[in-house]
Amino acid sequence: MQEIVCTGCSCLCDDVVYGDTVYHACRKGYRLLTGKKEENSVNGEKTDVYRALKAARDVIDGKKLLIFGLDNVTCEAQELALKLAKDFNAAIVDHSALSGGKLLELSERLDSVSLEKFRDEGYVSIYWGANPHNSIPRLLSRFTYYPRCGKRQRGYEEDRFLVVADVRKSETAKLAEKSKTGLFIRIEKDDELVDSFLKALNGRAGKYPEVARILKEVEKAEVNAVFGGSGLCSGLKDFDKFEDVMKKSGLYFIPATSKTNMRGFLETVAEVTGCRCYGYDFERGACLNLKDLPEVFACCEAVMVIGADPLRTLPHELSKRLAGKVVVAINSLKSLVRLLKPKVTIASTLSAFSSGTMVRLDGVKVELKELKEMKESEGKTLSDEEVLKELLSM
Amino acid sequence: MFEFTKLMKFDVKVVVADDILHEGDKAKALISKGLAEKFGIKNRGFIRLTRGESVCFEVLVSEFAEGVDVVIPDGYFANRLAGFENPRRFTAEAEKCDEADVDVI
Prior knowledge:
The complex is a heterodimer of chains A (394) and B (105). Chain A has 394 residues and is an alpha/beta fold. Chain A contains 18 helices and 19 strands. The mean pLDDT of chain A is 94. In chain A, helix 3 packs across helix 14, helix 3 (75-87) runs parallel beside helix 18 (384-393) and helix 10 (190-201) packs parallel to helix 13. In chain B, strands 1-5-2-4-3-6 form a six-stranded mixed β-barrel. The chains are: A alpha/beta (394), B mainly beta (105). Chains A and B meet through helix 1, helix 12, helix 16 and helix 17 of A and helix 2 of B.
């Protein structure tokens, strides 16, 4: 039995115990840690990792390459993937342009707070377009709502104020609705709630009068935060007004994106290329945005999928463009990538079992703990970092 | 007996959400009580959503779809309908059908 860091979502829980059974993991983490492992193959036939690596290098050589995925791998592997993209003049993208990227960009301009500080001192938590019950299942129990510690010894019954703003009644919204110290605001348009906040800050009433109560509660403590989810990211039109609200109300902002290391990817891209963007095309020397994706997916000749399942995570409009391309998949778990008939599949070690660094949703770097004793059934595999190192050295 | 509800088509508000309970090999979705009543669905049934492509879902009537009409768990089936510019919230055409699509894996 060994303590590991779960890489099931961006909460990166470091208290998960893995061995014959799994302790402390949420449903999402358990499914990841016990998922069916991928196997090395070339043209659909099983092989060993080194033959697969050689075949992978051969099939991408001389082709216009797209590297996709990387949200579930370590920062070190992301850095190597960027190096590979540079060597091949390739384009490299993750999921951030589709969902979550705008929130991470916003979080850099706004004040943020670590989850540990919020656990000890946080009072009002506003989940806006987020449903952590499903997307980041242990966020409420480990950090934001249930814990009794620091200045919040009386727990959620009295010491935490939960607000959920969403277009539908989610599980988290139900919790807020039922709680004496909670509030659920069913919104139609996110911008209308932003307007209500701005009006309330100026002493006027907007479409949502509940906002005045939230601002009153915010005055009771120093640490209060908005957790913006994918709903906010896709629903909000005017990000400047939202920024205004956050600054005027003194609320901290934490992007509640569930993709494990999306924040790490954006930081690594910024470090390597010097541009704050969702992806980079080394051939053109330009940043990639949402509108560039259809062209990038259509124009490439080979695709290297690293730690991702494009058929499950990409809209069909994009994933259908991968049909007929030469695909190299580097994945730990079995996925729908096999429907793309990859030329080469390389099985890598699950990031939760390898060493390296990932960036948690609040921007804190978390060191992963390498699993010392692999189960025999899992066999020997290379980590994503080792796979990319090998590909670069060939 | 012929079901008249099978001829009905409605434009519905769809939200794609993380939903780890309903993700899986079969296309499943949650629908609001209001939409269920329109289709004459009591607890569970089947509806086809069309937005360019069509996907047939097994639907459960749930309070978690109140506020919108349909909630689809993020994944393969949701992505067949979602556009890349706004993959989380969109409208689609709904009609009754007889069975749900099954994942190919």
